[in-house]
Design a protein that fits this description.
The protein has 12 helices and 4 strands. The protein has 250 residues and is of the alpha/beta class. The chain has one domain: HUPs (Rossmann fold). It has a 4-stranded parallel β-sheet, with helices on both faces.
Length: 250
């Protein structure tokens, strides 16, 4: 049985110990308005104090509801939330790409989707460096991915895969929800359908499989054969994301 109190306390201790050992001051993370970033923010606020947590909304042709939900989380856990709108930055980038050739919508769709989390990654690292100077101590970037996302490679290399500390990497979506409920993350956020806030689709629509099925597969529970094949295909196709090969000089 999942002991949510024990797991939450273990994560909080992990954060405290890591920050103390490495003489770190604070953390920066993107607040998407979804459950994962909300739970991560709540955990860091509990571990470090809300005054050492900086949340950032990074809209990029995003829904206004995501920003509103992010504000709910910031208000609940009393951490600073700033807004850095990347819409014009993204549009400027795409305008430059358009000069390179007459690409079809299908040719650039995936590239356009993935440049957004990469712009977000650059932004949170910029702010981490800035706040390190402003606050007189090192700020690092927190990741927000959960185990189900990671297993099927649902992340962008050089985007949301890039961070300095991860705390939900070994927890399924259902377990993240339980931690969020325990920490009293607002219901509208913790039970919101997961999406990237960028593509206009839910995560499960994009993946073609439900997170509860991914969790069942990870836990070696019996699944429909077609669902099993879909999960295995996603995992195997993402192998290049899990390990970066490095040639070892002879």
């Amino acid at each position: 049985m999942f002991d949510v109190k024990r797991e939450t306390n273990n994560i909080v201790k992990f954060i405290k110990d890591y920050f103390k050992k490495n003489n770190l001051k604070g953390v920066v993370l993107g607040i998407s308005g979804g459950k994962d970033s909300a739970v991560v923010a709540a955990l860091f606020a509990k571990a470090l104090g809300s005054e050492n947590v900086l949340g950032v909304t990074l809209p990029c042709h995003s829904h206004i509801s995501d920003k509103n939900d992010a504000q709910l989380v910031a208000d609940k856990f009393s951490f600073e939330l700033i807004n850095l709108d990347l819409t014009k930055t993204y549009d400027s980038f795409i305008n430059e790409i358009d000069k390179l050739g007459n690409f079809t919508e299908s040719q650039i769709k995936n590239s356009n989707i993935n440049i957004k989390p990469r712009l977000r990654m650059a932004s949170v690292y910029y702010l981490a460096a800035l706040y390190s100077e402003l606050k007189g101590g090192t700020y690092i970037v927190a990741g927000t991915s959960n185990l189900c996302e990671l297993y099927v490679g649902y992340f962008t290399k050089g985007g949301d895969s890039t961070y300095d500390i991860g705390v939900l990497n070994n927890y399924t979506v259902d377990e993240v929800i339980k931690i969020g409920e325990y920490l009293k993350v607002p219901d509208t956020v913790i039970h919101k359908a997961p999406s990237d806030g960028l593509s206009g689709m839910t995560d499960e629509d994009k993946l073609g499989v439900k997170y509860k099925d991914i969790a069942s597969y990870i836990n070696k529970e019996k699944l429909d054969e077609e669902v099993t094949k879909r999960i295995e295909k996603l995992h195997n196709n993402a192998n290049h994301k899990f390990n970066i090969p490095v040639y070892q000089r002879k």
